[in-house]
Structure formats: C-alpha cells, structure tokens
C-alpha cells in the first residue's frame, strides 16, 4: 500500500469498494495518529505525535463515522457482492461500530491502565523507530521534543473524564504512578528518555539531551498530577466495571458478544481438567509434589539462563529452531516472514512478555519482548511455551504472514482491523500445536505449557467473575458460593497459577484495566480448534494441516463471530 493519501481525482474515478474504503481509512487514521503510521512503517520521517486531547479523539471518531457512511453507500451500490469484498466490509463495519461504541461511552476519557494506554504508546513508539543513521536520530529528537505536548493532551482528556465523572479505578492509578516513577529513574536528568537519547550520535547531542529533558519533565508533571489530583478523585471509583460496560468492551476485544454465563461455566470445566493434568505432570517433575510445589521447584532449582542478554539470545535460538523445524512440514513461510528478533522490554513495562509486528514493508522485523522485572536469572520452564506463543509459531507467524499477503487483502484487514481474540486465540493454539507435535514432552517444559493454559482458563474465570459480579460455583475448590471480588480473584489465581507473585499482581491490574481482553485467549483458541475440527471433518483423510494453516493465516483479521465459519470452510 502506498503511504500517499487517495486523491480527490482517485476518489472520483475509482470504484468505492469496501477494500478501497478500508485502505483509505488506514491512511486517514495514520495521518491523524502518527504512532499508527510508525507502527505500520508508513511515512518513516514523520516526527509528530498524536493529538491525545478530547478534540484529537473526536477527530478519529469522526473519521470512523465517515468511513461507515462511505461503506453504506458502497454496499447500496452492490460493491460488496464479491466474497473478498464482503469479508472486508463485515470486518470494517464490525470494528468501527465497536470502536465508536467505546468512544461514545467515554471509555477513552479514563484510559489509565498498566499497559496499552496512550501514555504507554507515546513512550513505546521510540523503541520501534529507525535509529541506524543520523537522519533517523534527528527524527527521534524532533519527536521526543513533542512528548510534552502529547502528554498535555492526554492529561486534558483525563481531566475531561474527571469533569464528567468517568474515571479509572484506583488500582490503575496507583500502578501507573509507580510505572512513571520507574521510567523517570532516580536522579535529575536521568530516566528512560535520557537513556534512550544517549544512544544517539554526538552530532545531535544537544538536540537529543534537550528533548529528553523536556520529555522527562513532562512525565514528572503527569506523575505528580495523577498522584496529587487524579488519584484523590478516583479513590472511591470501583475497580470493576459491571455487566453493561463489560459487554461493550468484550465486543471491542473479541469481535463477538459471547454468552458470558456460558463462557464462565465452560472455563470452570477447563480449570478442572487442567488441574488434573497438572497434578499428573507435577509428579514427573518432583515425586509426590503438588503442581505449585513442582513449579516452585522448577523456579528455584530448574534450568535457568543467567543474565538478560543471555536470555535474549536463548529465546532467539528457540525461535530460530522452531522456524527451521516447522518450515516445509507444517508451514510454508516466505523468507521475510522467517525473520524475527528477540528483545529486552524497556524498564517499567508490565510483567507479561509481548510481541510487536513487522512494518508492512518488513524494514522493521517482528520482535518479541521480555520484561526482566529487575531480575538477572531467568528460569526456562515457563519460557518455552510462552515464546511459542509470542514468537513462532504464534504471534509472529500470524501477524507477519498477514503483512506478507496484505496486497491480496486490504491493509485494514492486516492492521487496524486486528481483533485481539483472533490473534491471542491463534497464539494459544500455537502453544497447543507444539504440544501436539511433541515439542513439550520434557516434564518441565510441559508443566510450563499446562500452567500457561491454566492461566488463560483462570483469566476467563476471574475477568468475567470480577467484572460481572458472579459467584464461585458450587464445585469450586476455593470459596464455593461466595462472590468473586478482586481480592478473592488474586488469592484464587495464586493458588492455581505457578507464576511469581509480582507477575500475578501485574496481571490482576491488567484485567481490571482492560476488561474483556483477557478472555479472548481461551475463547479464541476454542474458536480456532472448532474451525480446525470442522475443516478436518469436511475433508476427511484428504485434510492437509499445512495447507490449512497457511490458508488460515492468510485470510487476515476476523472477529470471533466469523472466525469459526471461515476456518471451517478452508
């Protein structure tokens, strides 16, 4: 896709098909939100930051409304009769409608959370910018100098939320204030922006240092405002959101409106099955041990990598080996899709590892990110399955393959139209696939895989249970019949998930700050497995798993409403 906007002449002469409308929308949003442009690899010299004020958010919403109106016109003219156009139109309409529902309800006015907020986007975008040349660093310096303006717009949005009584919960505020303290560092003139700018050339030292100092001062001002003014206003706010708000956010993250009570019951069934499997596996790790005892043993006495750089290299090797093993047998990957980089996450990140997709032109590769959380020793029992999830064959294969086939779809279907539950469901399916293929037979690694599955089942339970206000069921081993509160959810989580307490604390804050997102892993995996089972049943002995994988990974984004049907037909 060209990074040039569609001209008036083109709009007048070219048919207004859903895919053209979708791609025009991407370009318009990339112009309104330069972070989107950088993430996609468009306009690499753009040094702007987005307008995070209420006016800026309204401009993005207005663009969505205009796109929906254009889609209405195109569909009335019969432009969506082609199956490929119809699929794009369905995604575009569903996504924009979900986004506008969130916007119109004022959710963006209380976007204080421990990851994925506009604040995090302003910092994290610098880790994705080119820094190979002096010209690249000049763009970095100019963008960094704009951080104060961007954060002022963000603060204005939060202040409007305070005025309208739309605030984040106190746990989010406390966590973000703590993150900002870590970003700022201990001494004057230090902090994350100063450390990042220190990597630039001496020829730009003055510009970079001045920009970093201004960015650091803006972060300090925002921290103080959040601590001294926003936090007292939010002190009496609930950390949970209730069924109505939750349903709206579930649609946004999952592209569907699942039956929440059915999903809650189903997740409890998964919990009981996984708990039994983990008990059996724990005995292979340490005779007569409970799952928690086995995982604590692996954490303290199991294989580990010493040092962050060594961990980064170890994870790189794990992904490289997976690509070598899977290429040609279970996937047919273009050469550019086979490149993925292991990275260390910036200090002050949330506890969970994450992935960033390659730019559309692959000039920036896909990257996995390991938060160190101040540690220097990295047990590997739970990293193997996690990196199959984040890297290969998980997020990287799906999102890089999307970019590879973007020209045959629309850019929207492989970028802004991404549905979280689709991507997270594939990544969890990828973990299961590696277990099915025999890569997790070692008791330690398989314990890590089962614990990862258990964490995702627990996410469905605690996310729905906390926000909707459900009770622990009668067959729960923990507080049966009692209402699930955040405090009870955290204790329950710690009893059945073997991850470190600080990780679980960060996870709980994440679920409270991103309602409905965490359920998409397990519900998305269920959709992928249902689609594969239906396709296998339809083809019988002729079913080709490699061909199915490549077709599935080449169809672009779909919400869970459409995913099973599309996968079943492949």
Average pLDDT taken over every residue: 95
Please estimate the helix content.
55-70%
Distance between the termini: 27 Å
Spatial order of the strands in the main sheet? 2-4-3
Count helical runs: 24
The SSE order reads HHHHHHHHHHHHHHEHEEEEHHHHHHHHH
Query: What is the rounded Rg?
Result: 23 Å
Oligomer: single chain
> What is the β-strand count?
5
Overall number of structural domains: 2
**Biggest sheet character:** 3 strands, mixed
Question: Your description of this structure?
Answer:
It is a single chain. The chain has 570 residues and is mostly helical. It has 2 domains: 8-248, no CATH class; 249-521, no CATH class. Helices cover 62% and strands 3% of the residues. It has 24 helices and 5 strands. The strands form 2 sheets. A 3-stranded mixed beta sheet has the order 2-4-3. Helix 22 (520-539) packs parallel to helix 24 (560-568). The longest helix is centred in the middle third of the chain and has 30 residues, at 205-234. The radius of gyration is 23 Å and the shape is globular.
List the topology elements.
Blueprint: H1 8-13, H2 18-32, H3 34-40, H4 54-76, H5 83-104, H6 118-124, H7 134-145, H8 147-164, H9 170-184, H10 192-197, H11 205-234, H12 242-254, H13 260-285, H14 291-301, E1 304-306, H15 308-326, E2 340-344, E3 354-356, E4 366-370, E5 377-379, H16 383-390, H17 395-404, H18 420-436, H19 443-468, H20 486-496, H21 501-513, H22 520-539, H23 545-553, H24 560-568
Parallel strand pairs: 2-4
Antiparallel strand pairs: 1-5, 3-4
């Amino acid at each position: 896709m060209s990074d040039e906007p569609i001209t008036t002449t083109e709009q007048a002469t070219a048919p207004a098909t859903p895919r053209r409308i979708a791609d025009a929308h991407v370009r318009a949003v990339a112009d309104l939100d330069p972070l989107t442009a950088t993430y996609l690899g468009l306009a690499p010299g753009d040094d702007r930051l987005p307008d995070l004020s209420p006016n800026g958010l309204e401009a993005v919403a207005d663009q969505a409304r205009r796109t929906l109106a254009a889609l209405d016109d195109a569909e009335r003219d019969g432009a969506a009769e082609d199956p490929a156009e119809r699929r794009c139109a369905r995604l575009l309409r569903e996504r924009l409608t979900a986004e506008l529902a969130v916007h119109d309800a004022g959710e963006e006015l209380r976007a204080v959370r421990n990851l994925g907020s506009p604040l995090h986007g302003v910092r994290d975008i610098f880790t994705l910018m080119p820094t190979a040349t002096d010209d690249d660093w000049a763009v970095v310096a100019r963008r960094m100098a704009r951080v104060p303006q961007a954060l002022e717009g963000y603060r204005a949005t939060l202040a409007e939320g305070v005025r309208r009584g739309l605030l984040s919960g106190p746990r989010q505020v406390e966590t973000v204030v703590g993150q900002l303290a870590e970003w700022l560092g201990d001494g004057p003139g230090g902090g994350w922006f100063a450390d990042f700018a220190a990597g630039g050339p001496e020829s730009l030292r003055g510009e970079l240092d001045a920009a970093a100092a201004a960015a650091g001062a803006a972060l300090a001002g925002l921290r103080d405002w959040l601590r001294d003014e926003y936090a007292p206003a939010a002190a009496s706010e609930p950390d949970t959101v209730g069924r109505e708000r939750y349903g709206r956010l579930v649609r946004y993250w999952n592209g569907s409106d699942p039956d929440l009570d059915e999903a809650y019951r189903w997740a409890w069934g998964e919990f009981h099955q996984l708990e039994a499997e983990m008990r059996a596996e724990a005995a292979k790790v340490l005779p007569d041990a409970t799952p928690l005892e086995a995982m604590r043993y692996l954490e303290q006495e199991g294989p580990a990598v010493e040092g962050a750089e060594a961990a980064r290299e170890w994870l790189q090797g794990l992904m490289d080996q997976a690509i070598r093993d899977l290429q040609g047998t279970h996937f047919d990957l273009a050469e550019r899709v086979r490149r993925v980089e292991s990275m260390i996450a910036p200090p002050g990140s949330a506890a969970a590892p994450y992935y960033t997709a390659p730019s559309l032109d692959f000039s920036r590769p896909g990257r996995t990110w390991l938060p160190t959380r101040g540690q220097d020793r990295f047990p590997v029992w739970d990293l193997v399955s996690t990196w199959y999830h984040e890297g290969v064959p998980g997020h990287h294969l799906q999102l890089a393959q999307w970019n590879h086939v973007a020209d045959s779809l629309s850019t929207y279907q492989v970028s802004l139209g991404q549905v979280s539950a689709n991507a997270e469901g594939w990544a969890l399916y990828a973990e299961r696939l590696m277990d099915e293929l025999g890569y997790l037979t070692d008791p330690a690694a398989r314990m890590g895989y089962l614990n990862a599955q258990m964490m995702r089942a627990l996410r469905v339970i605690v996310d729905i249970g906390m926000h909707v206000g459900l009770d622990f069921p009668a067959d729960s081993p923990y507080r049966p019949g009692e209402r699930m509160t955040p405090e009870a959810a955290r204790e329950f989580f710690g009893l059945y998930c073997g991850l470190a307490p600080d990780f679980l604390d960060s996870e709980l804050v994440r679920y409270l700050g991103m309602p409905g997102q965490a359920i998409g892993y397990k519900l998305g995996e269920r959709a992928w497995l249902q689609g594969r089972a239906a396709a296998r049943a339809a083809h019988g002995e002729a079913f080709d798993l490699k061909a199915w994988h490549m077709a599935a990974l080449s169809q672009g984004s779909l919400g869970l409403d459409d995913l099973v049907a599309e996968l079943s037909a492949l």
